[in-house]
Write a structure and sequence with these properties.
Blueprint: E1 2-7, E2 10-21, H1 26-43, E3 47-54, H2 61-64, E4 66-72, E5 75-81
């Protein structure tokens, strides 16, 4: 999803990639980072966010909720777990 938000003096452009996973693995995050980076490049957006929805029934919300900052191919992408 590309979010375009005009503000006085410019426009903010952000990519938001959503992934649903059962038991989040690093491979799901890595694939999401690659896809988010491609969208950032294609859209000319300044910021990227990857949201992972973990559907595991055996995990508590505390285990599913996290935030981390990743640097992928020279671009900063915020990763959010939920």
């Amino acid at each position: 999803m590309l979010i375009v938000w005009p503000y006085p003096g410019g426009v903010q452009r952000a990519v938001l990639e959503l992934k649903v996973a059962n038991g989040v693995t690093e491979s799901v995050i890595l694939a999401g980072l690659r896809q988010t980076w491609e969208y950032l490049d294609r859209c000319g957006a300044e910021e990227g966010h990857l949201v992972i929805s973990d559907r595991s029934a055996n995990k508590s919300w505390e285990e599913k909720l996290y935030h981390r900052t990743e640097n992928y191919q020279g671009r900063v992408i915020e990763v959010w777990g939920m």
